[in-house]
Amino acid sequence: MSTDASDPRRKSRAGRGAAFILGATALFASAVLLVGFGAGLRINTTPSEPLGLWEIEPLSRSAVVGDLVFVCMPDSAARTEGKARGYLRWGLCPGGTGPLIKQVVATAGQQVAIDRSVSIDGAVLRNSRLVERDRRGRSLRPYSSGIVPPGQVFLHSSFPGSWDSRYFGPVPASGILGIAREVLTYAP
Question: Is a pLDDT exceeding 90 seen at residue 130?
Answer without folding.
Answer: yes
